[in-house]
């Protein structure tokens, strides 16, 4: 009751097509997509649904939303994929958007990557390079796995102050062995080493003043991020 949805934007594979398959949990992923759309129609029957495609820009008050990747763009080169109609994981189908704010937000930007993993991230880096730099960034796949050093270096080597949102709780943010502390996941180590990166996990509700680049928790301004770095 606290949320009013006017528009819904998405682009999901059509799991009903016999020409499309996924090696992991195809049936479950199809059910998730159907459940999502059913719930939107049930709880927000007046919402307008849009199927988004790369190259589109959605204009909202104070913000332009660029669609820079959907599953349709994915170049299949993961080791277990056999042809253009097969995905290894649903995560390769995450849509990616870059939000460009203006007005009081002083030309700030936000990157939402969803659960993109591995070769999808490599493709984003090869396509956009430094254009992926933003003031706020949702770390891909909760920060567990799936990124790349090339992507992390875009942020770690940039003088741009970036708030990195880790969609995981405080325990996993600090201790989970998928967060980049093992050699095969060191892209997150690179990201966390970025001198101008500030990291926030989902253990507490954090809000951002995107214009002034200030962070708040429960209405109180934070003086440091969840790694203890001064803001």
- Span between termini: 35 Å
Report the strand count.
14
What portion of residues belong to β-strands?
15-25%
Compute the gyration radius: what is it? 18 Å
Query: How does the major sheet shape up?
Result: 7 strands, mixed
Mean pLDDT: 88
Oligomeric state: single chain
Number of helices: 5
Query: Per the principal axes of the C-alpha atoms, what is the gross shape?
Result: globular
Class by SSE composition: alpha/beta
The low-pLDDT segments are none
- The H/E string reads EEHEEEEEEHEHEHHEEEE
Percent helix range: 10-25%
Strand order of the largest sheet: 4-5-7-8-9-10-11
Describe the overall structure.
By secondary structure, the chain is an alpha/beta fold. It is 21% helix and 24% strand. It contains 5 helices and 14 strands. The strands form 4 sheets. It has a 7-stranded mixed β-sheet, with no helix packed on it. The chain is globular, with a radius of gyration of 18 Å. The mean pLDDT is 88.
